[in-house]
Design goal:
Elements lengths: L2 H6 L3 H4 L3 E3 L4 E2 L2 E2 L11 H6 L2 E4 L4 E6 L2 E8 L6 E4 L2 E3 L7 H8 L4 E5 L2 E8 L4 E7 L7 E6 L6 H6 L12
Parallel strand pairs: 1-7
Antiparallel strand pairs: 1-2, 2-3, 4-5, 5-6, 6-12, 7-8, 9-10, 10-11, 11-12
Length: 171
């Protein structure tokens, strides 16, 4: 394999047509809680390591006990797209908290500290968490999908000041 072939078969070329579904919790063909699908470009790496990370592509996924545990996306660097139950959703560095709320509804919890804002969405009785992080409180910087996310931990809920019942009843 030549160096040009190697460069074209990794990184941005891989995420350009890649879709992350923020309602079915799938990264390409692999859903959170499932073994990495061999059709996904990150699957070979996850056989050798628990993490696939490409800072250049703004894309990181990790496994726990052999199944996809989380995905961390850096908006702006990530060249793929997003969907909600298969329907494309326009999320980029220009997305505001208001736009995310219009697309996804009211979050389970909102954390606001200093210059950062995080919208927490909880699904499957709190077993799946989707976070939209706004480092400047205005524009989207990061999206995280996780099994048993931050708010699934009672101590973290206390630290974030969560006053809602757990586990969430809807979502």
């Amino acid at each position: 394999m030549g160096i040009l072939t190697l460069l074209l078969s990794t990184g941005c070329a891989q995420t350009k047509d890649f879709v992350i579904d923020l309602r079915t919790f799938a990264c390409g063909n692999t859903k959170l809680g499932s073994a990495p699908d061999s059709r996904d470009f990150f699957a070979p790496q996850l056989k050798a390591s628990d993490t696939y990370k490409s800072a250049r592509d703004g894309f990181e996924v990790g496994t726990k006990q052999g199944v996809l545990d989380y995905a961390f996306i850096t908006i702006g660097a990530y060249k793929g797209s997003f969907a909600r139950s298969g329907a494309k959703v326009a999320l980029d560095s220009g997305a505001t908290p208001e736009r995310v709320r219009a697309e996804f509804g009211e979050p389970y919890w909102i954390a606001s500290k200093d210059q950062e804002l995080i919208l927490f969405y909880e699904f499957e009785a709190g077993r799946i968490e989707v976070q939209f992080e706004f480092p400047d409180k205005k524009t989207l910087g990061f999206i995280t999908l996780a099994r048993d996310g931050v708010l699934s931990d009672a101590e973290q809920r206390r630290l974030y000041g969560v006053t809602k019942a757990w586990p969430p009843k809807n979502g």
